[in-house]
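Hello everyone,

My group is preparing for a crystallization screen and wants a predicted model to guide construct design. The compound we'll soak is flavin-adenine dinucleotide. Before spending weeks at the bench, it would help to have a computed complex in hand. I've included the protein sequence and the ligand's SMILES below. Output in structure-token form would be ideal because that's what our pipeline reads.
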Amino acid sequence: MTMIKVSLIMRVEEVSGSALPAVISILQGWSASIELLLLTEAPVTEPVTLPIGLVQARWVDYSVFDEGEASLALTLHQATRDSDHLLVFEARELRPLAAMLAALRGAALVTDVISIVAVDCCQRPVYAGQAIATVKTRAHNQIWTLRSQAFGLRESVSMQQTVLQRCPVVKASGTGIKVSRQPHSSVRPPLSRAEIVVGAGRGVSLQQLSVLSAIADKLGAALGGTRALVEAGYLPEQSQIGQTGEQIAPKVYFACGISGAIQHVAGIGGSGIIIAVNSDPLAPIIRHHADYFLIGDVSEVLPAILDRI
Ligand SMILES: Cc1cc2nc3c(=O)[nH]c(=O)nc-3n(C[C@H](O)[C@H](O)[C@H](O)COP(=O)(O)OP(=O)(O)OC[C@H]3O[C@@H](n4cnc5c(N)ncnc54)[C@H](O)[C@@H]3O)c2cc1C
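Reply:
Good plan to model first. Here are the tokens for the complex, ready for your pipeline.
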């Protein structure tokens, strides 16, 4: 059997999660040659604790790329030329990157992978998470984006301190491809990795959103919301939870003034306990999704909660 080469691409912030060792342990079952490319905004000078089994680990400093350039995509394309598979650990801002890499490589792109079945077979949610599709690809050259939260570690994987090499940068200009970055500037944890997520929907006014933000800060939670609030300009685009936003898997999701539309619920399936506050007892989030709920007006409930935590 020919050994396949797999390149893993992820942001350095994701390294400490369980997804990387979980995926590496799956790939080791294929006897794959595995290399890791870490995207970072600062040089990696110290050894990093990584799973054993990587043939190479490199870092790419994407702070050197100017907005509007395709240099990051070209750099990764160059760095992974001899790989059969590219697995991109999904972060919202890496989705366009995966698409560009697929175009550059002429590769088959499968997004939102939640389970790896075989070298050419994976599973992904469809119909806003209502069904799971098993996707079998015939292409030799593939890119999959992985939903990191879906890959929990089942067995222990040995780790070791690993020295990373710098990946040389390819500068591109005038390609007409735009790579945009939205660095995570908040002190709150990122939505995709937060243990508690506080979510706001159309039922939350701008004034109540500041109360909810204060609750999030007291709980050390991430703050997200529905598309309605993003479109209203109350929350930044990267805060959107759902089918076309972030997928979350917190221990607790606190959903306020959110109806529970199918496209929103598609992003909260990994949540442990769902607590909802809504004035409508018939709202789908109350009837079908919440483990605990409070029927009431957020303008009364949220200040009372803030007072008590
Ligand atoms: C292709 C497509 C993709 C989409 N992707 C996403 C996505 O990724 N994420 C997403 O969120 N949406 C997405 N949407 C939009 C989605 O369909 C819903 O429109 C949206 O989720 C509704 O947001 P909401 O719950 O904030 O608003 P609403 O559905 O209007 O619900 C507001 C809720 O607030 C309650 N409420 C009102 N006032 C109060 C109060 N004072 N106190 C307490 N409760 C109150 C109401 O009872 C109601 O249940 C998508 C839509 C499409 C078509």
